[in-house]
Structures are given as C-alpha cells and as structure tokens.
Amino acid sequence: MAKFSDVKTQLPGPIAKELLEKRKRYVPKGVSNGVPTFADSAEGALVKDVDGNTFIDFAGAIGTINVGHSHPKVNHAIKEQVDRFIHTGFNVMMYEGYVKLAEKLAHLAPGDHDKQVLFLNSGAEAVENAVKIARKYTKRQAIVSFKRGYHGRTLMTMTMTSKVKPYKYEFGPFAPEVYKAPYPYYYRRPKGMTEADYDEYVLQEFKDFLVGDVAPETIAAVIMEPVQGEGGFVVPNKRFVQGIYELCKQHGILFVADEIQTGFTRTGRYFAIEHFDVVPDLITISKSMGAGVPISGVIGKSEIMDKSEPGELGGTYSGSPLGCSAALAVLDVIEEENLNQRAEKIGKRVIEKFNQLSDRFDCIGDVRGLGAMCAMEIVKDLKTKEPDKKLTNSIISEAGKRGLLLLSAGVFGNVVRILMPIVITDEQLEEGLSIIEESIEAAVENNKKPSLV
C-alpha cells in the first residue's frame, strides 16, 4: 500500500529553519503555530512543506478545508472571478455572486420560513453581527453563551468565549451584558447520574440561571454551538438542545446556532443543528464555507434580518466576490461528491478506531463525536479523569514528526480533535489513524521515562 506521509528531514528542515528565524524576528509570538515548518503546496488531504516533507492533514486549517486543499472546482471559480474583477465593494456596486450565494444558503438552511443572508469576513464578525441583529430586532441587550463555548477573539466574541488562556488572559475589561449558561459535559457528569437525568439537571440549572443571573425579558439571544468545538468536541443530547430552544421561544429570546466549525458537511449535514430537529432564528457560518478564502455570514428569518436600516450592516470586504465564488463552488462540490454521506462514513471509522485505541491505552478517557467531528479525551487516570494536557501535546508532537497534522482542544487542553478534509481517501484516512496509534504509543512510552532535570 502506498505511503502518503513522508518526513525526510528533522522538523524544522533547513529551509523552514531559516524562515522560522525570520518569523521570530518579524511576527509576534502571540500568533501561535503548530508543526514547526512552512507550507509549500497542498492538495486534497495532503500538505507539502518547503523542505519536501509531506503531511496528511487531520487539522484542516482548524476545520476550514472540508472540501480539501486546492479543490479544482474551487480553484477554477476563484481564478475565473479574478479574471473578471477582484472587488467593487457590495455597498458600492453590487455583484451577482453575493445574491446567488444568499439564495442558495437561504434554501439550504433549516426551516420553511423566508430567510435572508448577510455576508462578512470571519467567524468572529459573523457572531458580532448576529448579536447586532438580535439586539436590533428584540430591543434587548443581554447575550447568553455557554460554558466552554468558543465564538472568536474580538472584544464581544472573546467575552462570549469561555477559555481564559490563551484567548482572554489580560485582555479585559470585557463587553458588558454577556452571560454564560451551563452546558452538559457527559463525560464529567456527576457519578451515578444517567444522561437523561443529567440533561434535566442542566436544563433546571438554566432555568435557575434565568432567575439568579439574568432576567429572560432582557435577553436578546442565546447562542449555542451545536457541537462545542474549541470546548472539546462536546456533543449535547437532542433533549438538551430542544429544551433550551423551547425556553427561548417561551421568553421571546432568539436562538442562534453558531455553525462556524460545525457547518458545511463536517457532521454529515450542511448544518449540525439539523441533527437536533431545531430551527434557529439565526445561524452563523464561516470556516469551510470558502475552502480557505475568508468569508462568513449570518442566515436568519427575514423579519429579523430585515430590521436593520441601510448602512447598519456590512463592511468594506464583507462577502467579497472571491469569497462568494469560492463558497458557491464549495456547495457544488458537497452536492456532487456526496460529502455529507462521506462525512458520516469517515466519522464511523474514526470512532471505531478510537474505541479500539481506548481499549488499548488507559490514557483515553472518552471517545465522542458527531459525523466527522470526532475526538478523544486524554486523562492521567480513568477513575479521577484528571486531564493530561502534557501527554496530549506529546501525542500531537509525535504525530507531526510522523507526518500527520493534528490539533488539540478543550478548556483543559487535553482533547485530540479530528478535522480532516472530508475528501480524504480511505487509504489516507487509515494511514493517519495508524500514525495516531503510533504517536500515542510513543508519547506514553516517553511519559514513563524519568526526567533528567
């Protein structure tokens, strides 16, 4: 069987070493990086670096490359748009791509109501604008997000995000009128409590939260990731999501689904919220929407979206022609290549492999996922469930040495998350999973060695 990963040099290699020195001199250390090398080319689920090393990509630019690197259809659409024009500013002279993409997404999004779509640049911008739209429509100020949630790095979205380091530490003061509600974490639920009882317990906590923390009649919107991304790939049960949704309806609160990481076929649906039989008032989108070209958006009920007056929404580069062209091509690829079905197949295989690994390695405390959004939680002890961030980092480092790009997640930094392109071949997938097994093996072995310090 052909081998796809190929690391010929130590990392960083000689060319990457030179670039790394320049990076240290000219780029602030606050901008993090993973594997210590630099990309030269990428196609499908493979990335080649400047020293000729080839990596299988299980990170997907943090969930941005669901249709794969440099998909021919996306590349063609971008090049064709560049040849026509690069930018006019939709608020100066409109272009057809924006309207075509809005129409397509309005039809794809859940719900049979009339919808409108606003385009922006980044996920954080989409969330910021969802907040603006919700406040404008409801005439209320308060915004509720959830513990362990991640929504971005701008002032408002950083406030809504839970993880203090590295996202919030010493960056305050934060935006006012933002509250964090409880969200289930089934692996760490109280001992002896069933998942059903736990859902009811957390829903009751949410009801208490509406009494003790913020009055429901002051809340403009509740924003929820259908699967928590940076928070550790925590998948809620349908009863919890529907319970929150019903409470929102009861109190006239808008329900916002943050689909920035979960959308565009990652979980086996265009939108992960479809798994929960809930129709959001607003949906935020980005990441894999543009296959690497910056674009984001807010999809919502027309009466909510249309409340703002001309000039109150948008921006200079919002919904750029290149972004719209790329996104239209992405939607074609998802449909033509049946990527929703492919995501479900990939997810089943990854979960199957992770369960096998958890039988073999005591450090794997939990395996979870939805579609191809899969993860395993690394712990020091199966009984205490104490997080093991150090071992997690070691696993990811060992994977990089073997030619696999991998990411961590979770508020404790102890979750290995999987975001490979959905177009990955079966052979590349199996090789990547084998590298994960080898990497856990090596990291566990290294962990046993006595420290020389």
UniProtKB/TrEMBL annotation:
Pfam family for this entry, one: Aminotran_3
Pathway(s) annotated for this protein in UniProt: Amino-acid degradation; 4-aminobutanoate degradation
Keywords assigned by UniProt, alphabetized: Aminotransferase, Pyridoxal phosphate, Transferase
Required cofactor names: pyridoxal 5'-phosphate
Transferase among keywords: yes
EC top class named in words: transferase
Coiled-coil regions listed: none
A Gene Ontology molecular function term of the record: 4-aminobutyrate:2-oxoglutarate transaminase activity
InterPro entries named in the record: 4NH2But_aminotransferase_bac, Aminotrans_3, Aminotrans_3_PPA_site, Class-III_PLP-dep_AT, PyrdxlP-dep_Trfase, PyrdxlP-dep_Trfase_major, PyrdxlP-dep_Trfase_small
Gene3D superfamilies: Aspartate Aminotransferase, domain 1 (3.90.1150.10), Type I PLP-dependent aspartate aminotransferase-like (Major domain) (3.40.640.10)
EC number: 2.6.1.19, 2.6.1.22
NCBIfam families: GABAtrnsam, PRK06918.1
UniProt-listed PANTHER family: AMINOTRANSFERASE CLASS III, LEUCINE_METHIONINE RACEMASE
Protein name: (S)-3-amino-2-methylpropionate transaminase
Taxonomic lineage of the native organism: Bacteria, Bacillati, Bacillota, Bacilli, Bacillales
